[in-house]
Description:
The complex is a heterodimer of chains A (about 180) and B (about 425).
Chain A: H1 8-30, H2 37-52, H3 58-72, H4 81-99, H5 110-124, H6 126-137, H7 146-165
Helix pairs in contact in A: 1-2, 1-3, 1-4, 2-3, 4-5
Chain B: E1 4-6, H1 8-27, H2 31-48, E2 56-61, E3 65-67, E4 72-79, E5 84-91, E6 97-100, E7 105-109, E8 117-121, E9 125-128, E10 132-138, E11 143-150, E12 154-158, E13 180-186, E14 190-196, H3 208-214, E15 218-226, E16 229-235, H4 252-269, E17 273-279, E18 285-289, H5 292-303, H6 310-317, E19 329-335, H7 340-351, E20 356-360, H8 376-399, E21 404-406, H9 414-424
Parallel strand pairs in B: 3-12, 16-17, 16-19, 19-20, 20-21
Antiparallel strand pairs in B: 1-11, 2-4, 4-8, 5-7, 5-10, 6-8, 9-12, 10-11, 13-15, 14-15, 17-18
Helix pairs in contact in B: 1-2, 4-5
Amino acid sequence: MSSLGWPLSQLMARLLVLLGPVVGLVAAAAADVPPPGWVTALVVVLAVGWAFMPESLLGTMCLAVVLAWWGIADFTEVPAEALVAALGLLVAHVAAVLAAYGPPEMAIDTPTVRLWLTRGAAVFVTAPIVWMLAVLMRGQPEPPGVWIAAMVAVVVASLMATVAFAPPQERAVDG
Amino acid sequence: MTPWRPTAALSRALVVAGLGIGGAVLLGEPVGLVLVAPLILCAALGLAGRPTSTPTVSSEVDHVSLHEGQGTTSRLQVTGADDAEQITRAIADAAYVATHPAEGRVSRLLAEGLPDLEISPRRWGRRVLGQERVGFTTRWAGYRWGPVTLPGLQMQVLPGPTAYTSRAETPQPKGLVGAHRSARPGSGTEFAGIREFQPGDRLRRINWRISSRTRRLHATTTRAEEDAAILLVIDAVADHGRSGGVDGAASSLDLTVRAAAALAENAVRRGDRVGLRVVGGSGRQLRFGSGWVHLRRLLLALSAIQSGGEGHRALATHARVPLRATEGTTVVLLTPMLTEAIATVAASTARRGLPTLVIDTLPPDAEPALPDDTDPDLADLAWRMRKVEREQVLAGLSGLGCPVVAWRGPGTLDDVLHRLARRAQLPQVRIR
C-alpha cells in the first residue's frame, strides 16, 4: 500500500498511463522531430491528470496531442520510432483500462492483467504490419479508388460509433 | 432498468482511431495509421462485444447471526450476465466490520467465478454492512453495466464465545433439579450421613456394613441436588471508554455484555435458570429460563443492548428499578457503577438477603466523552471527583456484604461465590 492507500498494482498501472504518452513524444524526438517544450509540458500535464482519472477525457486529449505532433511532422519515410510511439500509446490505453476497472484502492486482479498483456501483445502486431505496408508503398503511384476506400472506411467507422453509442432498444416481451 | 453504456476506454479508442485515420487520409501521411492501428483493433473488438442481455444482481451472506470475531462470506447472485467478462464489487466501510480482501473491493474475470467477500464483525450488536456497488464490463472493455448499488445487509452479532467455567456453588439453590448441592437431604450423590432405616427408604440405600455391625437396618442418606436462579442485571445507562472491537480495547458496555454472555453460558451449561434485566437502554427484561434455546434468547437480547435511550430517561425520573428477584436468586450486577440508581439496586437487593454480586466493568483507562468546548482541566477534575465518589459507593456496597469484583474472565467469581455460599449457611436478618 502506498501513502495514497493505493495498492502497488494500481500505482504501476497509473505510472504506465503517465509514461505511455511521454514515450510517444520521446520517440518523436528520436525520429528527429523533437516537440517544443510547451507540447511536452501539455502532454505531461494531461498524462498526470489521466493517471489520476483514467476514465476522464484527459486520456483522449493526451493521446490526440501526441498523435497530432506525429501527424504534422514532415517525414520523408515512416520512421521505425513510430512503432515505439504506437507501443507507448497502446500501453497507456491498456493501463488506463486496467486502472478503471474499480476504485483506486482496489488491487488489480492478476488473471486480468495477464489477459490484457496477451491482448495488448496481439493487437500491437497490427502496428508493424501497417508500418511495413507504409514503407513498402512509399513512392508507389497512388492506386485508383484509394480516396473512395478511405471515405468508405470513415463512413463505416462513423456507423460503428453510432451503433456503439446508441441506447439499447427495448425488446418486445411476448405474452 | 440499468443500461449498458460504452466505456471511456471504447470512446477513447474510437476517437483516437478516428483522428488517426482522418489525419492519415487528409494529410496523406501514413504515420498516424501506424500509431493508432492497435487502438483501431481495440475499438473494433470492443464494439463487437456489444451486449444484449440484462443482468440482475443481489447479494447475501451465509450467516446473518454469528458471534463477534467469527467470519462469514458475502456472495453475489447474478443472472443474465452472459455478455460480461469482468465483474467489480466494492463494499462501503462499516463500523466494526472487517472485510477480506482489504477495503472490500475486488474485481475479477467472470470466468474465474464470482468474487466472494469474507466478512467478520468485530463487535457485538446489530451491524449493518456497508452499501455495495457492483458493475460488469464486457470483453475488450467495450461496455459497462452499472455500477448498481445494493443495500447493506443487517447482521445480528452475538457477544464472543468466552471460555468461562466456574466450579463455585451457587449460594442459595432453591430449584428442583440441578447440579448444586442442597442443604436438604434427597436423592443426590453427595454423602450426607447414615441413619436408621425408615419406611420409604429405598432398599439400595441400606448400608449393609453398618447394619450387620449394629444388627439394625441403617441407610445412607445423600443431599439433594438443585438448580439455582441467576439474575443478570445489566447497566446500560452509558458506555464508558472506547471500543476497539473483539481484538482491541473494551468499553464498559463491551465488558458488561461479554461477561454477561459468559456467565449465562456457564449457568445454562450447569442447568441453572438465568434471567436478564437491562437497566437503561431498551430496559428489556427476560424471564428466568434454562436450556440452550433460552441461552440463544439471552445472547440475542444482550446483542441488542444499546446504551442510553428511553430507559436512561426513565431511570433519571424513577430511581427505583424493580428486579422481580425471588428468594434463592443470585443477583449479578454488571456495571461501571457511575449511576446512583444502580448502586441503590445493589444495596436494596443485598438488604433483602439476596446474594448480590457486583462486577465492576469500568475500564481502567476510561475517560468521559466531552463536547469540544469543554475546559479539559475542569473536565479532568470533575472526572477524578466522580471516580472518588464511585470508590466510596463500591466501598459502601462491600460494607453491606455485597462483594465487588472486576471482571477478569474465567475464575473471576469462584472465590466470591464460595464465600457467599458459606455466608448463606449463617442466620441472617432480612429486610423485606
